[in-house]
Amino acid sequence: MIGRIAGRLDWKGIDSVLIDCRGVGYIVHVSDRTLAGLPPAGEAVALYTDLLVREDLLQLFGFPSMLEREWHKLLMTVQGVGAKASMAILGALGAEGVARAITLGDARAVQAAPGVGPKLAQRVILELKSKAPSLMAMGGGLARNDAADFEDTVIEEAKPAPAPRKPAKPSEGAKRAASAADALSALANLGYGAGDAAEAVAVASGENPDADTAALIRLALKRLAPR
């Protein structure tokens, strides 16, 4: 599996680019949004990739972050959503927009992607509603793009791992605090301000003390949604 390509951007097409990686050129298919964010030809670039394998075809799809790559893979689990439709949805909404649309049940936003009809958009909402929050909670560590660092990558010598300790069982208060922190991180990744997000999560947590991270995200987003 090819998970990331870094090199020189040699060519930009309509929906794909050619990246030269030490003399080997890779054709990588990208969304309109990703293409618009790439530097001019001749400059350094790095993309996280997903390899589509068929009997008569190998295609690489590129993404500016691991978060968007994971959304691509999740979207393709929906019946009727192939690589082309997934890239169209991400191109129209971006990773944050897809997360917001699914959580709020906004099928119209998904339908704004070229080639995505109302039935398919509704299916995306229904099939991913329960799966989206867990990916949103992981968003902070997946959202960065290390394109500028690929020439300076250093592999350090591994050090012996310390003997594992038996973890203490977390208290209910610690669990609630961790869920709230994860929910705040997910909302920050979606672009909400720290104050608004903190207030929404605090209210949601207070009204639903047993809510896990996924539930807190959904409840907080409902409070933050424009009325």
From TrEMBL:
- Superkingdom of origin: Bacteria
Its annotated compartments are: Cytoplasm
- Annotated region Domain I: where? 1-64
Assigned keywords, A-Z: ATP-binding, Cytoplasm, DNA damage, DNA recombination, DNA repair, DNA-binding, Helicase, Hydrolase, Nucleotide-binding
Q: Where is the Helix-hairpin-helix DNA-binding motif class domain?
A: 73-92, 108-127
- Provide the GO biological process annotations: DNA recombination; DNA repair
Pfam families, per this entry? HHH_5, RuvA_C, RuvA_N
Keyword Lipid biosynthesis attributed: no
- Acetylation keyword on record: no
**Region span, Domain III:** 175-227
Any one GO MF term held by the record is: ATP binding
Q: Which GO terms describe its cellular component?
A: cytoplasm; Holliday junction helicase complex; Holliday junction resolvase complex
* Protein role: The RuvA-RuvB-RuvC complex processes Holliday junction (HJ) DNA during genetic recombination and DNA repair, while the RuvA-RuvB complex plays an important role in the rescue of blocked DNA replication forks via replication fork reversal (RFR). RuvA specifically binds to HJ cruciform DNA, conferring on it an open structure. The RuvB hexamer acts as an ATP-dependent pump, pulling dsDNA into and through the RuvAB complex. HJ branch migration allows RuvC to scan DNA until it finds its consensus sequence, where it cleaves and resolves the cruciform DNA.
The domain-related comment in the record is:
Has three domains with a flexible linker between the domains II and III and assumes an 'L' shape. Domain III is highly mobile and contacts RuvB.
Question: Subunit comment for this entry?
Answer: Homotetramer. Forms an RuvA(8)-RuvB(12)-Holliday junction (HJ) complex. HJ DNA is sandwiched between 2 RuvA tetramers; dsDNA enters through RuvA and exits via RuvB. An RuvB hexamer assembles on each DNA strand where it exits the tetramer. Each RuvB hexamer is contacted by two RuvA subunits (via domain III) on 2 adjacent RuvB subunits; this complex drives branch migration. In the full resolvosome a probable DNA-RuvA(4)-RuvB(12)-RuvC(2) complex forms which resolves the HJ.
State the family named in the UniProt similarity comment for this chain.
Belongs to the RuvA family.
Q: State the name under which the record lists this protein.
A: Holliday junction branch migration complex subunit RuvA
Gene name tied to this protein: ruvA
